[in-house]
Amino acid sequence: MAAPSQEAPLTAANNIQPFFVLHKAAAGASLTTSRARRRVDISQPSSPNTKSAKRPRDEDEDEDDEGDMELYEQLRLEAFHRTWSKIQSTINEVLRGINLKLFDQVLRWVQESFSTVRSVMRPCPAEIQQPYPLLTDVICRKIPTAFVLTKNAEFVDDVTTFRDLSDHLESNGCHLAKLSSTELSGKHGVAGCLRSLLRQLLSDVPDVADVSALASWYCGAKNYDQPIIIVIDDLEQCSGDVLGELVMTLSEWVIKIPIFFVMGIATTLDAPRKLLSSEALQQLYPCQLTMGSPSERMNALVEAILVKPCAGFCISHEVAVFLKNYFFRHDGTITSFISALKLACSKHFSVEPLSFLCMGTLEEDCENFWRDKFGALPQAMQKQAFGLPSCTRENNSIKPGNNLVEGLSALMKLQRDWSSVLSCLYEAGRHGKVQLLDVFCEAINPDLHTQKDSNVELPMSKVTNGNLPSRNSGAGRRFLPQALDTVRYMPMETLFHVLKVWSIHLEGMNEINDKVKELQSTTTSATSADCVRITKDKWTRSTNRAANGAVPLNEKAIMLLDDITRNFLVPVECLPFHEIICFKNVGVLQSALIGNPRRMVQLDLLKSQSRLKCSCCSRNGIAVSASLHDTSIMCNLAQEYGDVINLHDWYLSFDGIINNANSKGKRKLIGSPSKKKSKATPQESEAMIQARFCRAVTELQITGLLRMPSKRRPDLVQRIAFGP
Questions:
Q1: Largest CB tally within 10 Å, which of 226, 307, 315, 462?
Q2: What is the pTM of this model?
Q3: How far apart are CA 553 and CA 512, in angstroms?
Q4: CA pair distance 409, 470, nearest whole angstrom
């Protein structure tokens, strides 16, 4: 329906027609109306009623509560930033430590290749700038090239690795230039590659990109006697023709200018053979290097940020299983795991009211921090702390006290003991190719801990697949018994090394550490006959022989590990106050990772008052307030309909809310005892209400919540999103 002219009579509400054009109201009119309505809401009529007398006090209390909530929101935001900053720095250190071995290998290869090139000939600056080659020997024209196998299906994990590799080589005196797959494409050609190379090395790039300009730059005193490293991080995405031509061009200058290649390969080492021509391959002198596998990096990350929580934040069993599956569904990319973990951390601090106390683990005196913060909490939040589900359930193995500070201190101590025992289990299980992420997911399972408590008479080392639930029941594979079983068939030399690592992990547990040292002394004094490998057949015979004699050393180690596992491997979800530091809502994380923008838009429209935190909507309670945005009003009204919405009925409901608000404001102005009479709010015209209605419906269509009318049924629109 077109916008009605000022001369034509206003269309009545009963005669509304289907519309397709968005009406635009005048900005000044809407501004005047909103300001007038705001003045009406603020001016409350004075009344001798006691309820109205108590209202300002209640409003002051509500304002104080809102101020406290904003304060604690800021504390939670600060806690999140500090916690994730600590986690991110730990991740960077772990990945840098894993890659440092590879970086040293590349640097050693660069130094050896440079020595080899200089041993053939050391040209003077005048010889370097000559346009013709110094030698025609085929061997002297080969460019030393390091092929680094990354083993990553996605390049996103290699970006940080090659950036750190470039910094490592540059810090050791090498001249560095990086060429991306975009620059090595047919669009730019060899000229674009040379121009990018010169731009990174030379301060003044000539108009015509040529290797001779690079030769002149290399003759400088500061640039001589250092190799030039060209890093290509993703070889498979480059153009084979452009890269081959670049190799042929630079091979003519390899004796004059020591240029080396470092190329990243994600799939197999046969990729250069498939990409480059045989002529270009003959100009390369290859060296193959391999990066650590994604599983090795994942084990190191899990140990640093989950097994040994560096910032106090931890996750529940369901969240851990979800992150594990999410990691494997995304081709084992570390970046996807880290982004999902960061999202879980942000959701925890946004949902849990007391999560800001997690920041105390980063303080030197955490108990004083907790004591000060808890003492400043309102009485309602203090009661909420002791009303957490972990503190109220009856089957707690550890009873919560009446002091939150002591409860959090006990929680952190139990977490440290849990971390030490889990590290010992993984040290034993990794010799049996057990992954730390699998052991971690099983160690934090509260259901398995409950089953273990109910079956104390059955040692964990005796648990087999036969007396476990079937795999279809969801219990999965038992990795903890597998780690214990690895100790049973472990050689004596390996067992001695494992006990040495156990003593390091159990430094804070003196009584257990003394037992480990006793086993170490027994292992050291063992005879050479006892140091043979124990196979399964020999173990059966030795067990029969030892029935009336001494217990074998491997069995003693299993008994010790089984004992500390039962006593100290308590999942965090079984401890009081764990909700403060542990994120458990896997549904929130899953919906955030999958991404459902249409549903989130609908939720924001339905609960806009919780976002805006205005006083006018809070007084109305559940009722839809006319002070809401028009789109939010329309979305709330749409919940009363089914699959289709009648435009006529929808408009009448919208018109009723707007006119009802105007009539209420008019009545308040009439009954106001103020001496200065306020100007009455002008009644909105029918055209203005229709324009607002059209704009709101169009916005709902743009956001994907509504489908506009069809030619068959021009009076109906179809809902797309359902549910709250």
A1: 315
A2: 0.70
A3: 16
A4: 39
